[in-house]
Amino acid sequence: MYAVFKRELFSFLSSMVAYITIGIFLLVSGLLLWFFPDTSILDYGYAELAGFFSLVPYLFMFLIPAITMRSFAEERREGTFELLITRPIGLWQIIFAKYFASLTLVLFALLPTLVYYYSISQLGFPQGNIDSGAVIGSYIGLFLLGASFTAIGIFSSSLTQNQVIAFVICAGLCAFAFLGFDYSSQIGGLSSVQASVANLGINQHYTSISRGVLDTRDLIYFITFSFLFLIFTNLVIGGKK
User: Where in or outside the cell is it found (predicted)?
Assistant: First the structure.
């Protein structure tokens, strides 16, 4: 499993795609946080990163599909998929290796954004006047959100050998998982179960964790959601095998 994980991680890091993808993510998030008038923290006037954490999920809808789209799609396109599944390694080990390699790249993309926290903490008045608990909770929420989107991306990549199609499928599923249930709950006929329908979506649980409160129910939701899509991946890959 470690060999597949290392191969997957270093094959991505050895290409320019990784650096371009992560670079664009950091550039766009930095512009949104510091320069664009409608979202700039400098114009907002408060030492907090709430605006940043509300924008990153939408950036994840493009970053994570770009990271995961090659996981299985490239293997099938290059003809190495058959070689991989005939190795003395379990199917779950292959899936988890690719999943954790992609999740590691998501973590690499998030780590440089800690500079934003330090900068805003230094700019606060008095210095250090920032709710660190809420920031830590929001970063945990972002990581769990990234883990869920990564599971969707691995599943999407297992469906096709075309990376562009895998990207589109992943982006669409991520958008629906994050926003679809909120919009569905607002349909007139569902007003009686509005809260229950909205609670099925990721947004409700991500918002809850972002407040700095770690609820066991939210943690169980993210773990279950991620594992569910990994099970779907296993079914797809197992069928192709």
Answer: Cell membrane
DSSP 112: G
Residue 12 and residue 68: Cα distance in Å, rounded?
10
For the chain, the structural domain boundaries read 2-240
User: What pTM was computed for the model?
Assistant: 0.89
The string of pLDDT tens digits covering residues 157-169 is: 989 888 899 999 9
Of the CA atoms within 13 Å of residue 123, those in its CB half-sphere come to 16
Angle between helices 50-68 and 132-158 (to 10 degrees): 20
Contact call for residues 57 and 51 (beta carbons, < 8 A) = no
Q: Which residues does 42 contact at the CB level (< 8 Å), separation at least 6?
A: 34
Instruction: Please give the sequence-ordered ranges of beta strands (E in DSSP) within 67-200, or none if there are none.
Output: none
Cα–Cα distance for residue pair 185/65, rounded to 1 Å: 26
Residue corresponding to tokens 């895998």: 166
Question: pLDDT tens digits for 60-70?
Answer: 999 999 999 88
Of 163, 175, 23, 13, the closest CA to residue 101 belongs to 13
Cβ count near 55 (within 10 Å): 16
Would you state the structure tokens that stand for residue 5, as one six-digit string?
Answer: 């994980």
First-last CA distance in the chain: 18
Q: How far apart are CA 196 and CA 39, in angstroms?
A: 31
Say which residues have a Cβ less than 8 Å from residue 207's Cβ, sequence separation at least 6: none
CA 69 – CA 172 distance, rounded (Å) = 13
